[in-house]
Design a protein that fits this description.
mainly alpha
């Protein structure tokens, strides 16, 4: 009785060629979200260290964070009109910038007494 050994069929990698690109506006939007988050955390920590009596520089930093979130959100939304792109980066940029925008607005509404 002779055993036959089968050669294992090599799995071919699944390669798909596509014309899709990663949009630069989506990448910039995500970078602005990270920058806005860092700026917000820094302003909150500095305000807590000052006992809530921070100067104009903390307000200016908070306004800069709000402006970065607005710009990042607008860039991400503009990417959705483009064709043949990967939507992962613009979608995550829009989500994170939207959450940060709401966070900035909540800090201003709750912080003003």
């Amino acid at each position: 009785m002779m055993l036959r050994f089968r050669k294992k069929k090599q799995e071919e990698p699944e390669v798909q060629f596509t014309d899709k690109i990663r949009p630069k506006k989506g990448i910039v939007s995500l970078c602005l979200a990270v920058l806005c988050l860092g700026l917000m955390v820094a302003m909150i920590v500095l305000s807590a260290m000052a006992g809530g009596e921070g100067g104009w520089y903390l307000g200016a930093g908070g306004m800069a964070a709000l402006l970065l979130a607005i710009i990042g959100f607008i860039l991400a939304v503009r990417c959705f009109r483009m064709e043949n792109i990967y939507y992962g980066l613009p979608l995550s940029g829009a989500f994170f910038n939207g959450v940060l925008l709401l966070g900035c607005l909540a800090c201003y509404v709750l912080g003003v007494n």
